[in-house]
């Protein structure tokens, strides 16, 4: 069986005009994640990212030098668009800048989106689910034995939920648990795909690294 490790990007720039870039903390998380894999003797023989800057910066900071393949199916859902549609283009300031309010509202919005609401969004829930599955297929249709993917929390949540045949609503519960730079491991063959480990952060486990843990 081959192994797939899907890493969530390091901390991005929450509340900034350009969210799609790593913070200084995000670069540090990514460096530590890459070092932890090398220390464990786990060196990938295939690299894949989505097309988002924060995903590609994460891989670069992890220190694996080969140029990755890209697949847009690993990208995050467009939460800016979903919130804008929900609020008619006028997203309240607390939803944009207060973390607690943002993530509570995001959860409500995703559940509505899954149920067929948020009409007019650029991407439907069904389209999102289909592209995540296409990304999984792309990453695992390979002769590589160790595949490393850098993705985002929503895509990872959906991948895990689909793998476990969980109800769609479980996706957002998983999504909101996914830590920056965390590792979710799957094992696969041409006929099988199994979850082996979810949301692990061995590189942040030491007591003196507790302040490096983040979720957005």
Q: Can you describe this structure?
A:
The chain is α/β, with parallel strands linked by helices and 216 residues long. It is built from eight helices and six strands; from the N terminus they run E-H-E-H-E-H-H-H-H-E-H-H-E-E. It folds into two domains: 2-76 and 132-212, Phosphoglycerate mutase-like (Rossmann fold, 3-Layer(aba) Sandwich); 78-122, no CATH class. The chain has helices at 24-39, 53-62, 79-86, 93-97, 99-114, 125-140, 153-163, 170-175; strands at 2-8, 46-49, 69-70, 146-151, 183-188, 193-200. A six-stranded mixed sheet has the order 3-2-4-1-5-6. A hairpin with a 4-residue loop joins strand 5 (183-188) and strand 6 (193-200). The longest helix is centred in the first third of the chain and has 16 residues, at 24-39.
- Lateral strand order in the biggest sheet: 3-2-4-1-5-6
Largest sheet, strands/sense/barrel: 6 strands, mixed
First CA to last CA: what distance?
32 Å
Relative strand content: 15-25%
How many separate structural domains? 2
- Using the CA coordinates, give the radius of gyration: 17 Å
CATH topology value of the largest domain: Rossmann fold
Brief digest:
By secondary structure, this protein is an alpha/beta fold. The protein has helices at residues 24-39, 53-62, 79-86, 93-97, 99-114, 125-140, 153-163, 170-175, and strands at 2-8, 46-49, 69-70, 146-151, 183-188, 193-200. A six-stranded mixed β-sheet has the order 3-2-4-1-5-6.
């Amino acid at each position: 069986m081959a192994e797939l490790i899907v890493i969530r990007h390091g901390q991005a720039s929450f509340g900034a005009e350009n969210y799609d870039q790593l913070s200084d903390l995000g670069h540090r998380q990514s460096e530590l994640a890459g070092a932890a894999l090398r220390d464990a003797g786990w060196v990938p023989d295939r690299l894949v990212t989505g097309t988002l800057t924060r995903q590609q910066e994460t891989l670069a900071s992890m220190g694996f030098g080969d140029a990755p393949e890209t697949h847009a199916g690993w990208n995050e859902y467009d939460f800016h668009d979903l919130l804008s549609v929900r609020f008619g283009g006028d997203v309240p300031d607390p939803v944009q800048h207060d973390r607690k309010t943002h993530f509570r509202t995001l959860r409500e919005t995703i559940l509505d989106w899954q149920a067929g609401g948020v009409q007019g969004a650029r991407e439907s829930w069904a389209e999102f689910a289909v592209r995540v599955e296409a990304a999984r297929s792309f990453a695992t249709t390979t002769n590589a034995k160790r595949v490393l993917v850098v993705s985002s929390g929503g895509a990872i949540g959906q991948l895990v939920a689909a793998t476990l045949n969980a109800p769609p609503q479980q996706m957002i519960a998983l999504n909101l648990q996914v830590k920056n730079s965390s590792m979710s491991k799957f094992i696969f063959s041409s006929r099988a795909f199994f979850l082996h480990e979810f949301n692990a952060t061995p590189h942040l486990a030491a007591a003196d690294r507790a302040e490096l843990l983040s979720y957005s």
